[in-house]
Specification:
Blueprint lengths: L2 E3 L6 E3 L1 E4 L6 H13 L4 E3 L13 H9 L8 E6 L17 H15 L4 E6 L5 H8 L5 H10 L3 E8 L3 H10 L3 E7 L8 H9 L3 E5 L12 H6 L8 H10 L6 E4 L13
Parallel strand pairs: 3-4, 3-10, 4-5, 5-6, 6-7, 7-8, 8-9, 9-10
Antiparallel strand pairs: 1-2
The structure holds NADP nicotinamide-adenine-dinucleotide phosphate.
The site of NADP nicotinamide-adenine-dinucleotide phosphate (NAP) has 22 residues, from β10.
Length: 269
């Protein structure tokens, strides 16, 4: 397994990271995560709202079960909550727009995952100006809670995930220089955010990629590739998609939405 730095944070993560949004249930999540960690994957992207069925049955809790008995110090864990003005759903990390709500989200994530600190905490889906406003404006903001949690050692670094355009992402990284990590949607068919990836890398901000297979669309074989590029003949599209992302040194880790042990074969290529 190849490991890469997360910008200037000092953390090192496997170039293939574990996404936790696509699990089919507790058993599937525990099996895939344990196998992945056994193969050397050390970065886990956690979301309070992923696969949320109840307080006990959700992807965050499944990660907690999978990690029982493993060496915490070898893992790099990232959790998140969504900044939005509206009805707050702290149990799912949704509608978070005050310091206290974000503080509760951090406490809930720590408890569910069963750890004393998280390496990263991200503002989840900060994709429009209104989301940045809900997250970062005023002294009572979610950003204030993230900074206080960092001061207390509950969170090591802060950042955000975004489906926004490169101009917004670049602007937000400039306005909040202590954002040290960003997760963006990027694959060889969706390259609109490339400029922001380069910008982040040049300033020591780590970059994680979500949607490497376009949510499962870039899977299988492609006649177009077979016909056009002899050297790619017989290579599954998903392998081409991962190789494209791995080849960019600005990318720290590629979060796969793996939900089968068979999906892990890719990490050995
Ligand atoms: N996508 C987003 O909007 C988003 C937002 C925030 C965070 N994230 C994080 O980023 C992670 C990755 O995003 P994503 O789940 O959209 O990623 P993705 O890898 O592009 O899509 C996941 C889907 O691709 C298929 N797949 C995964 N690995 C495969 C393999 N090796 N071979 C063949 N098919 C494979 C599976 O489809 P089948 O189930 O059909 O087999 C899976 O459901 C998420 O799990 C989450 O942690 C994503």
């Amino acid at each position: 397994m190849q490991y890469r730095p997360v910008g200037s944070t000092g953390a090192r993560v496997s170039v293939l990271g574990i996404g936790t949004m696509r699990f089919k249930g507790r058993e599937n999540a525990v099996e895939v995560i344990r196998r992945a960690v056994g193969l050397g994957l050390n970065y886990i992207d956690i979301g309070a709202g992923y696969s949320y069925r109840s307080l006990e049955e959700n992807a965050e809790a499944w990660v907690g079960e999978a990690l029982k008995g493993l060496d915490r110090s070898k893992l790099v864990l990232s959790a998140k909550a969504q900044p939005r003005k509206g009805e707050a759903r702290v149990d799912r990390g949704l509608g978070i727009h005050t310091r206290d709500q974000m503080w509760k989200c951090i406490e809930t994530s720590l408890k569910r995952v069963g750890v004393s600190y998280l390496d990263f905490y991200q503002l989840w889906d900060m994709s429009a100006a209104a989301h940045f406003e809900a997250a970062c404006s005023g002294r009572d903001s979610p950003l204030t809670a993230l900074r206080q949690a960092r001061e207390q050692g509950l969170v090591r670094h802060i950042g955000f995930t975004s489906h926004g355009g490169p101009d917004d992402i670049i602007q937000w990284l400039g306005r909040v220089p202590d954002f040290r990590f960003v997760t963006v949607y990027y694959n060889f068919t969706n390259r609109y955010v490339e400029e922001a990836i380069t910008y982040a890398h040049d300033r020591g901000v780590g970059v994680a990629i979500m949607g490497p297979l376009y949510g499962g669309i870039l899977v299988g074989h492609s006649r177009a590739f077979d016909d056009a590029l002899v050297e790619l003949r017989r290579m599954p599209v998903q392998e081409i998609a991962f190789r494209f992302l791995y080849s960019n040194p600005a990318i720290s880790t590629v979060l796969s939405g793996m939900n089968e042990v068979a999906h892990l074969v890719l990490c050995q290529s």
